[in-house]
Structure formats: C-alpha cells, structure tokens
Amino acid sequence: PAAPALLNVKADFPIFDHHPELVFLDSAASTQKPRAVIQAISDFYSRDYANIHRGAYRLSAHATDRFESVRADAARFFRAPSPDGVIFTRNATEAVNLVAHSWGQAHLNAGDVVLVSEMEHHANLVPWHLVTGLRGARVEYVRATPDGRLDLDDYAAKLRNPAVKFVALQHVSNVLGTVHPAAELVRLAHDRGLPILLDGAQAAPHLPLDLSALNADYYVLSSHKMLGPSGVGALIARPDTLNALPPYMGGGDMIREVYPDRSTYAPAPNRFEAGTPAIAEVVGFGAAMAYLTDLGMDRVEAHEQTLLHAALDRLNQIEGLDLYGPPTARGGVISFNVRGAHAHDVAGFLDEANICVRAGHHCAQPLIRALGCASTARASFYIYNTLDDVDALAGAMAETAEFFR
Ligand code: PMP
C-alpha cells in the first residue's frame, strides 16, 4: 500500500511545547494556533496597530491596507465571488444571525417556513427560531438518516411545500463529520427558486472550497476552527445579494450619510461591518489562511482522512463501543459511546490519559435525540494530530470499554 499521506507540522504549534503529553482531539470545538498566527498578531500590535478606515495618517492607512488585504486573501482562499462579498463577523454564529435577521425581517411573513435539518448546530437553528418567532413563521426539519446523513428524499419532498421561503443547512456535521452533498443541496433549493445558506463552520477548516462554483447564496464560517484567532468569522455572498439586504447592525463605518431623522447605508462589505472590527484578529486570520495555503487544503484533507480511517479501524475492533456516523463521505470527527457509561465519564477517563475529547450534545440537541442517545463523546482530528494520537485514543478507549464491561 502507498505510504499514508501525513503532514508533519506538530512542531509549528507552541501549545505542544508547553504540553508535550497532550493528545488534542477537540479541534471541531476550536483548533490550536501555529506560531505564524500568534506572531502575526503580536507583530501587528507591536508595529502596525491603529484603527482602520480613518486614514488621516499613514499608520492608519497602512493598518487599513493590512485589514483589507485579508478580505482579498479570504476571497482567494474560498474562491468567493468578490472581496466585497466577504463580510467579517465575530464568528459563524453572528453570520447566521445577520442573515436570519436581515433576510428574515424583510421577507418572512405569517405561515412561511424556513427549512433547516435535524443535524444543525444550534447556531444555524436558534437564529431561525428567533426570526420566525418575530414574523409568525416557523421552522421545519429535513430528517437525518439513522447513519447520520441528510435524507435527500425528505429534503426534496419538503422543498415542494410552497410555504418554504428559505433553506439553511450545514455543509459538514460537527457531531458526526458527515460531509453533505453541498452542490446538490444548493441545486435542489435553487430549482425551487429558494435562497440557501450553508453553515461551513466545519467544512472551511477541512476541505478545499470553491464558493463561486458552489453558488450558495450565503456561506458562513469561523476563523478559530481553522487555526486563526477567535473573535472573527465571515459571511460570504455575492455583493448584489448583500446590497439587497437591510443592514443588521447600525453604527460607524456602515453609513453613506446620516441626517437627524434617517441614514443611508454603504454597500457591502461596509454595510454589514458596523463599528471597529476585530482588526488584529482579522490579520491573524489572514496568517492562518496563508499557513493553510502553504500546506495545501488537499493535503489537509488527506491527512485527516488517513487519521480518521486509522482510528475507525482501531475503534471498530473494541467491544462495547458504539460508533456513530456514516460509512463514507465523512471528515475527521468520530462520535462514540461506551455501552453502560455516560459520555462525560468517558471523557473524564480519557482526560486522565491527557486525551482531550468533548462530551455532551455538541450544540446539536435535535440530532442527538434523532440518534437515540443522551450525549456522545467526540474525538476530532486536525493537521497537528499524528498516528501516535490515534494509538493513544484507541488504547485508552480499549481500557475504558473494558472497565465498563
Ligand atoms: N456550525 C457548526 C457546524 C459548528 O460546529 C459550530 C461551532 N461548534 C458553529 C456553527 C458555530 O461556530 P461559532 O461558535 O464559531 O460561531
């Protein structure tokens, strides 16, 4: 067999200098940061910092250039239709709220339906509860299959309901790693003339993306899940789509003109970036995308697939362990339960072995209910994980399952 396609980048991540024993398997919650990102933020504050878009002096103009160049970098990295269609938000959650409130307040009426799925993270669910509640509309759910995929027949059937006005679905599941057929999800919505938002929080870190080709109306993601700092995320859309929406938040930087009784608004991106943004964090996000570009997203994906399949092979042999998720089309996430044990106790056992996994409902309560369990433990892989980490997980899981048998 061909040598496994593995990256060798652990040394780029200072957290492992401070915690050499750490087996970090919680990257789906948030990733560790490479030195290049930490350094970029520190350098920006040390050498270049000033507020942006207030270019009366050169230091501010330069900071503005640094910030705006990340917008161009993001457009290239994600193959967005245009840099003007890249809106920096606080995170994926804020990006969904922006669309839910701007689009929903303008377009939803009593009796209308927003179609989501049972697999959504609460970030792509609760904003729709809020806005449908305000507008007398409601949320309906595309069913999940027992092995954790979207039921595409159910999706097609629910799209035929004329009350459906908007579709909001995830690209990749944070609980099961399922990679949904995003192009097909978009095509089916567009065939019905419906706008669609894709939650790419778990896709952007792991897959090469071509958002122009994918053609979702709205795509959202978070920097902190892809090596960048927390406090910055993005909404990516076509500028004309964004300019047709009312602003979400009002304030400085997003206006054209302000009169005593009314304001007019700037076009995207400024239209949706009220107030001073997370300037240094955006610069750090730029460094994260540069780092991933150097590695190559195809190699990132291959590395995770190698670890995923090595881990599945090992975990599948352990008696008393229930693994969730589809057999194919999945990323580097494994949800599991030890029969007879609570997921939090399993995570506690693993923590004793310095293995970090998450336990609970993973902000996806409807999915956890659909799977028929109360919670799961979740191991998730990223570029700094190694086959030694897989060994550590499999060894500790064998002991944990043995303990509870
Ligand atoms: N969607 C999915 C699928 C996620 O996994 C997450 C983060 N767990 C989010 C949305 C929300 O991301 P954030 O907390 O960065 O806004």
UniProtKB/TrEMBL annotation:
It holds the Pfam family Aminotran_5. Belongs to the class-V pyridoxal-phosphate-dependent aminotransferase family. Csd subfamily. GO terms for molecular function: cysteine desulfurase activity; pyridoxal phosphate binding. This is cysteine desulfurase. SUPFAM superfamilies: PLP-dependent transferases. Its EC number is 2.8.1.7. GO terms for biological process: cysteine metabolic process. Keywords: Plasmid, Pyridoxal phosphate, Transferase. InterPro entries: Aminotrans_V_dom, Cys_dSase_SufS, PyrdxlP-dep_Trfase, PyrdxlP-dep_Trfase_major, PyrdxlP-dep_Trfase_small. The keyword Ribosomal protein does not apply. Its cofactor is pyridoxal 5'-phosphate. It is an enzyme of class 2 (transferase). It catalyses: (sulfur carrier)-H + L-cysteine = (sulfur carrier)-SH + L-alanine. Residues 23-393 form the Aminotransferase class V domain. The keyword Protein transport does not apply. It comes from the Bacteria.
